[in-house]
Amino acid sequence: MGYDPLEKKRPLKAWEKGGTNRAATLQIMTVVVCGALVILVAAAPHTVPALKRAFKDWFDDKVRRPLRERHWRHVAEVSRQLPRFSCADIGVDLSELHTHVLTLERTPDRRKELAAALDAASIPYSLFFGQDEIEDIAAPITNHYAGARTKELITGQGYRVSSRRQYWLDLISHRKNGTLSGPLSAKLKQRFEFASKISFLQLMHRMISKSWKYMVVLQDDVRIVDSFAEKLHTALCSLPNDWQVLHFNACNERMGEFVGEGVRQFIEGSCTLGFAFTMEYAISVIYERAPRSDHRFDYLAMRGGYLEGAYIADPPLVEESGLRSAAHIGLHTPPPPTS
């Protein structure tokens, strides 16, 4: 259809007109956009983290968690199809598992109940005196196994006392009296956790030096369940042959599906109350996970990277006795004599 000069035209909008109207409109739009950008930048310290958290929560809920659940279901199916661990060479007294009770030499009362229960069950065991947090920790050990933050916190520098031992005893005393500052409390906590980590690693080094295939470690503050030896033997015989660690109990645990009688997948948790493990597991923790790390031992042993070959007893084989773990002994037991 041709051009009709009599056709009625609609009025032009301001931004469609030339000259000053169009320029004014562009200026207004520019000011609005720039103002919005200024507001966004000014609010960024508050809004960006919130947006990141919201996106992370959404991504975890809609993408990561379903993928993880699918992965662990697949792993469980594979584990159920694996041959069972050959436990024929492990007797009912568990002597082949080289059971050790991890404790401190200065805290005999903590281990009395567990020692009596093991004796009553005719389970052979050894006491292992771990690294005492109030005693000096050799510099080569600290240099190899402590991360930068741990080294900074556990050295005790900047406090003039006659000995490092007295320094930590003073901190413990202030902690019990409620007069310990936040930074010093963090220092003390890190010291306890590092000493606990070293204690477990010393046990694993002993296992390797003795060429033991398996080891059981029990914290001195746990109670074993009735018929502990029989139930542990049954659980071991039900494990897939790819197992590297069997946790007897845990805190804040995430468990997967059952893969055998009394054993389930172990995904993550905390609190190393008691566990059985292989030499391969010990080597992995000592040489791959522990060096120059600021993490607690239970993170290295129970959470880092979601361990394959990790299982947990269900129902549990040990229970907490109400005492605190070896990583916090100094906060809940009388300090030893200073002489």
Automatic annotation (TrEMBL):
It comes from the Eukaryota. The chain crosses the membrane at residues 21-44. One of its GO terms (molecular function) is transferase activity. Keywords: Membrane, Transferase, Transmembrane, Transmembrane helix. This is Glycosyltransferase family 25 protein. It comes from Tetraselmis sp. GSL018.
